[in-house]
Amino acid sequence: MTFSVPLLLWLAGFELPSAQDRTQRYELTISDLRDIYVETIRIGKGYYLKGYRKEAIYFLYRALELDPKNEGVLNDIALLEDYDNPFWKRKKWKSPKDDIAKAFEKDAQSFERALLERYVAEAEKARTQFERGEALARGLLLTALERVGGPFEVDDSGAIQLGEAGALPADISQWLLEEELAEIDGQLWFRDSVLRFLPDQGEVKEVRGKHFYVRVLNSKERAEELLALMEQAYAQYAKHTGQAPIKPIGLFVFPDKGMFQRFCQSSKKLQGLENALGFARRDEGVAISFEQPGLEQVCVHEGAHLFFRMAFAARMPSWYDEGFASFFGQDGTMTYERGKLETGLPMHAGRLGSLLRGWIPLDEFLTADAASFAHDGSGGQTFYAQSWAFYTFLTTTRDRRFKKPFENWESFCLGSSSNETYTRRSMQLFDRLFEDVKPDLEAAVKEWIEKQIQ
Fold this sequence. Notes:
Blueprint: H1 7-11, H2 19-22, H3 34-49, H4 53-66, H5 71-81, H6 86-89, H7 98-126, H8 133-148, E1 153-154, E2 160-161, H9 170-179, E3 181-184, E4 187-190, H10 193-197, E5 205-208, E6 212-216, H11 220-241, E7 249-254, H12 257-265, E8 278-281, E9 286-290, H13 295-311, H14 318-328, E10 334-337, E11 340-343, H15 349-357, H16 362-367, H17 377-396, H18 400-414, H19 420-433, H20 438-453
Parallel strand pairs: 6-7, 7-9
Antiparallel strand pairs: 1-2, 3-4, 5-6, 8-9, 10-11
Helix pairs in contact: 3-4, 3-7, 4-5, 7-8, 11-13, 13-14, 14-17, 15-17, 15-20, 18-19
């Protein structure tokens, strides 16, 4: 990643930040980012005019990040998500063709690069401001480096190189090397939450593929084994959804459960997850687990969560979320033998038999949250199995009583916002669409499960 702005003009005399400054992050105003904002809107409308609704929504949401209260953008998104939704038009939108998909990816990446360059440019302006100028400049620099991620290069003098932008001064480079960057296999990366937790980042082994990168603490051979698995999984996620995230997906595997638990306990956001087998962090784009029997299944399951959350803006109900991930990685639904991954298989008959005996009533199931089962082993097993059953049945059934309303509901949800309001509305819509066949749906899923067991 290179920046086209002259960093050296403002980095000269750049003061070392205090610990308090380093914890702060600043957002730019819409006036600072007007040209990028206008370009983002233009790209979004261009996709809409071509009939590619999800791509248009992606760019409108990027514009909303720059101007959160813009009524025009909010109205445009509402129209796309509601009145212009495939549900209301009673027709399916075509998936993007290869040429459109490539253009979409290029546009998205160009926007990300432009935003990064502008962050650094605005840091230069911030130095001329009064009291907050220095702190704002430092915050913008860290934000830019964090978005780039790495790798960063260091010259013989110890200065960090930023491509065409030149080199950072020695004192700033030293601060970043000590506080904000970590060396992995001879390359420098911005520290995410895992790297900040580790006392010695030099122990991390990393391998990178086309779509995934894997970090472990034991051996590079282990990282390569897991990368081979996840690259295959990525291809199957993409084939199943017809979508793909813009950025690479990460996987970090701790060497044992104890270190994994200490990591979870080190952050308020992660407390309560220490008994999980793994979890996915959308904000950092990384799935986190630990060495354990059946690790491959856990990685494919959590990788599916992360893929979906990075490919779609939608915040789906918990049963759909877990059903999707379990379709790829759950007891019996995947095999990984001799280096070949196969997903979308039937769940183990024993697990399905236990599901029928511990069945969760439909209305309770549809509104349940997987997190509520964190300390309920048998209840959690039932919820995950039932989620797999409903998701797999509804995505494969040919019965038009269920097929058509589910397709309309799913289409509505996948183009919607990632907030709780839309999650509630999605379930209200589900109730309305399935109102006349809800008892039949529950009976049909149970009958389908019994056939899977036979």
